[in-house]
Amino acid sequence: MIRTATTTAKYVSLVVASIVMLLPLGLILFGSFKTSQEFLSTGPMTLPADWGNIENYVTAFTRGNMLAAFGNTVFIFAMAIVGTILIGAATAYALDRFRFAGRTTVLALFLLATLVPGVTTQVATFQIINGLGLYDSRFALILIFMGTDIISIYIFLQFIRAIPKSLDEAAKIEGAGHLRIFFQIILPNLKPAIATVVIIKGIAIYNEFYLPFLYLPSKELRPISTTLFDFKGPYGSQWEIISAGVVITIIPILVLFLFLQRYIYNGFTSGATK
Amino acid sequence: MTTAPSGLSDPTTAAAQQSDAARTPRQPRGGAGRGTAWYRRLTPYYFLLIPVGLLLLLTFVPVLNMFWYSATDWDGLDKTKNVVGLDNYVEVFTDPDNVRVFYVSLYYFAASFLQMAIALYFATILSFRTRFRNMWKGILFFPYLINGVAIGLIFLNFLKPGGGIDTILMAAGLESLIQQWTGDPDIANFSLAGVSVWRYMGLNFVMFLGAIQSINPEIYEASDLDGANRWHQFRYIILPSIRPIIGLSLILAISGALSVFEVPFVMTGGANGTETFVIRTVWMAFNRNLVGLASAMAVVLLLIVLLVTWIQRKLIPEEEVDLT
To answer: Chain A residues with CB inside 8 Å of B45's CB?
Structure first.
């Protein structure tokens, strides 16, 4: 008796929570297929009259600049991720495979840096980016994304320990230099770590709003977040177009999530506990 | 950067090997160039040059500069910076508009307890056998992956007058509960903190679930034999084993509550009493050009986060972070 009651309560709570999670998303989806007349005259819970009405999506893509925005996001991601992987792996390689003067200092610097939240330092980082002449350049974001990602370095440090040192030794006996050991032994063996970093970093870059908002004022350089934020201005009262923009923004992440669920869960749990 | 991972051949020795097509073991190249002792000793420094350079340039130099700016009246453009001592800090703690942002962060901090409680509840029930488990897990977690701007817009749509929440209240005959969800200064912070719970609950949930699932199932079986019920299992097995992760979540909650930015910025722009620490700092530094004052705000935020982290490390000794 009590068992059945608790089981029922459990499923009821799951259904309620799912409704709370999905309803706000569902209403945006409904809205994105409505005409502007329809959006104003029907309630938010009313299903759209024509699910084939993609006019809002066309408007979002063409007049809302979303295509260029995806291009910018992909460009920033591609450059930053290569940098992040090389920097993370090189740091892990140096710290794990060598004993040298200053090693503990370097470790301490990285540890200390994890405690500094990025949002706090932008007031001063801005001056440095500006001094480098990178204000309003996509390379400002690329540099910050690859230069301040301590979490990735930790992930690489953890994984590199599992690569047997005998592999390095064998290559060394064959006459390989350190660069070659790094690129041909260490990097290929770090593939699982690289996969984790690509996923976490990819989602983080895709969702980042603060940095492009500060550093990329030019319309044609904006990535997804700030482009979507722009919808608030000109389409302020056209919620059907804003809705389409939101749905367009969510779809890539949803697809990624459905295909890579397991890796995403693992990535976030390992990334969060450092 | 230049070598592709394709076999171990190398142009200088390839000629010598061409008769014997595949792989004769290569002789170690002693003596000249890369084999020398000084080169070997410098190797780790070459690998660390760029990473540590960027770390200093983008984290430590800004932090130090921030301390320096915070003692000046700099506007971000002037060649000269006048030292004003602690004036900026006095202003941070006395100007009521500045003090307000600390107060606003308390809403988010309080909400994070609700968030962790919900996450713990769902992590616990889903750690036992449940039908469609992966589906529930996915639904609870997915909001965490959504772009912050999109979340702001989704909830503007949901909370606007005549939006989703009002429609539900009407249908339930609770018209009297309808509010100006983001327009009324008495309500707005509750609404925004609620959105924050919606957004971040999934991360806590997945972290807790991961920790619970790493408990050895034999412990449950043994406790079943001893006649333990679900509550006993939660209280004496689950809770103790996820203590460290709850401690970590608490730290993230405090620094998170102080660094809230996107959702209130998108939804209210900081109006109606919803201005957060970061919104105000950004506005000061980049709209009002009060870089000195904004730096003082940022220093205060940084010190709070460092203090909280230090307290947590003292209270909960952790073995997880081992670097050496």
So the answer is: 94, 100
Q: Which domains does chain A have, with CATH numbers?
A: 2-53 (no CATH), 67-272 (1.10.3720.10)
Mean pLDDT, rounded, for B134-152: 93
Parent domain of B110 = 92-315
Report how many Cβ contacts below 8 Å link chain A to chain B: 275
What residue in B sits closest to A152 (Cα-Cα)?
B51
Touching A: B residues 251-270, CB under 8 Å: 252, 255, 259, 261-262, 266
Best CA proximity match to B198, nearest among B273, B119, B312, B81: B119
Q: Which residues from A are below 8 Å from B146, CB to CB?
A: 207, 250, 253
Tokens describing residue A24: 């706000």
**Is the pLDDT confidence value at B17 over 80?**
no
- Residues B64-113 pLDDT 10s: 999 999 999 888 777 778 888 888 898 889 888 888 888 898 999 999 99
Cβ-defined contact of B8 to A176 (cutoff 8 Å)? yes
Percentage with pLDDT > 70 across chain B: 85
In a 13 Å sphere around the CA of A57, the CA atoms on its Cβ side amount to 13
B36, part of any domain: no
For the stretch A86-110, pLDDT in tens is 999 999 999 998 888 889 999 889 8
Confidence of residue B190 (pLDDT cuts 50, 70, 90): very high
Q: From start to end of chain B, where are the E strands?
A: none
In a domain, B148, yes or no: yes
pLDDT digits (tens, 9 = 90+) for A74-83: 999 999 999 9
Would you say residue B48 lies in a domain? no
Task: Give the residue with greater pLDDT, B77 vs A8.
Answer: A8
List the single residue in B5, B48, B122 with the smallest CB-CB distance to A17: B122
Domain count for chain B, please give it: 1
DSSP conformation class of B33: G
Which of A123, A203, A225 is nearest residue B149 as measured by Cβ atoms? A225
Query: How far is residue B71's CA from residue A152's CA, in Å, rounded to a whole number?
Result: 34
CATH label of the domain that carries residue B280: 1.10.3720.10
Q: Say how far apart CA A254 and CA A257 lie, in whole Å.
A: 5
Give the Cα separation of B297 and B280 in Å (integer): 9
**Nearest C-alpha in A relative to B245:** A273
Residue A71, token pair as written in the block: 């291009």
**Per-residue pLDDT at A203 exceeds 80:** yes
Q: Quick one: pLDDT band at residue A270, thresholds 50, 70, 90?
A: low
CB atoms within 10 A of CB B59: 22
The number of angstroms, rounded, from the C-alpha of B258 to the middle of its chain's C-alpha atoms is 11
Helices A2-32 and B164-171, packing angle to 10 deg: 130
d(CA A149, CA A204) in angstroms, rounded, equals 11
Give the relative orientation of helices B188-213 and B148-159 as an angle to the nearest 10 degrees: 130
